[in-house]
Amino acid sequence: MKIKRSKSLSPEPSSSRDIKRIKLEEIANLNRSTSLHILEFSDDVLLNILKYLYPQDLMAISLCCQRFAQLTQDRTLWRRADFRTKPIYLEDLNQYMKFLQPITMSLAMRGNLISREHSSLTQRFFNNVKTLCDQLKELIIEEYYINGDKIHITDFPCTIEKLSLEGCKMNYLQSNKSYFFKMDLHMPNLTCLILSNCEWFTPHSLLVISKIPKLKELRLNSCHRLGECVAYASLATRFGFKTLEILDLRDTALGDSEVGCFSSTKTLTHLYLECPSTWRNDESPEVIQHRQQQALRLPIFEDGNLAQFLVEDGFSFENYGFQRCLISDRAICALGSDICEREGVNSFLAPQRRIIILREDIREDRREARRISNNPNLKTLVVRNYPRVTNSSLIHLALNASRLEYLDVTGTSVTRDGVESFKSQKNNVKIVSSFDET
């Protein structure tokens, strides 16, 4: 006798066709509901998207519709206006003036020196910037022409804390007065000044710049006229630069005397030095090593007990040649601190120069010695491609640069053993050299 099995009362499995059909319909409806047009987003969402765009993109979007035209003028989008994605001519730049706001804190732009007519800034431009951005803190102007006889430093906004004229060309005919005259009074809050690749910069401007009361960062790399006269550097560093922390002197024709002047800046923490590229070549390593050995045999006016310092008076730069822009151990050993007594023992006149001979009396009892402390806070030192910098600099820095954290001696005449010895004494300092594995 067969017994019929009753139907199960348990529910059907969740994979049934009906439920699958319901879920597919729900997903389809959900997809249709999420297909929104960009204009359906709220203003807050759109502003959050627009803040990642460059000013040129905001200008293009403003032409799409009335709503985008209003949104792109929101002041929160123009706190920092950076136009450097591509060169922008002055007439195009004037179109963006309507977007600048009193809240604009940073304005950056880059011109094109190929077209002088379209890359010459006018006094009207500076007047508009001062009027529209009365709280401007950062002004970056790169690769523009500036007529220094018509546009004075007092035409720049007085509120800025960072000013960059990198790569700009300037016409300035007044040789008896620096272009930066009264800059220390006009920009009392300036903390950063960048004059990289400004061929028109002359050394006597250092006197005015050194008076800026809050200046912390000064970049003069590729200012090739900087080494024309040591007297201005000496006066500027002796009486000014009271707050300077970062100094970039790469690719300048400075020698030991000028660097020695800057070494007296007590607040300096970062110093960048590099031999000008025009004084380097692509010769074979053997030829370069031979040239370095020859350079090392040149007198650097220093030994264990005597030191001679040149007092330069009215030299032309050409008379110095290659030796003139070679920084040596003498400049590096002026950094940090030392214990000695120096006494002038003789001075005499030689053709075209006066030499002062100083005697250094190293005392056994250090309590009686005078400590000469230069750059006690130096943390970063870059000195690249100078063949007259040798292991003597490493020995001095290991003993006297107590706060040093980073050292770059690439392209100098230091040896592998000298680098290893420095590492063993200063294992907390990161040192970069030509012997690093690539």
Automatic annotation (TrEMBL):
<dbReference type="InterPro" id="IPR032675">
    <property type="entry name" value="LRR_dom_sf"/>
</dbReference>
<dbReference type="Pfam" id="PF12937">
    <property type="entry name" value="F-box-like"/>
</dbReference>
<dbReference type="InterPro" id="IPR001810">
    <property type="entry name" value="F-box_dom"/>
</dbReference>
<dbReference type="GO" id="GO:0031146">
    <property type="term" value="P:SCF-dependent proteasomal ubiquitin-dependent protein catabolic process"/>
</dbReference>
<feature type="domain" description="F-box">
    <location>
        <begin position="35"/>
        <end position="81"/>
    </location>
</feature>
<dbReference type="GO" id="GO:0019005">
    <property type="term" value="C:SCF ubiquitin ligase complex"/>
</dbReference>
<protein>
    <recommendedName>
        <fullName>F-box domain-containing protein</fullName>
    </recommendedName>
</protein>
<dbReference type="InterPro" id="IPR006553">
    <property type="entry name" value="Leu-rich_rpt_Cys-con_subtyp"/>
</dbReference>
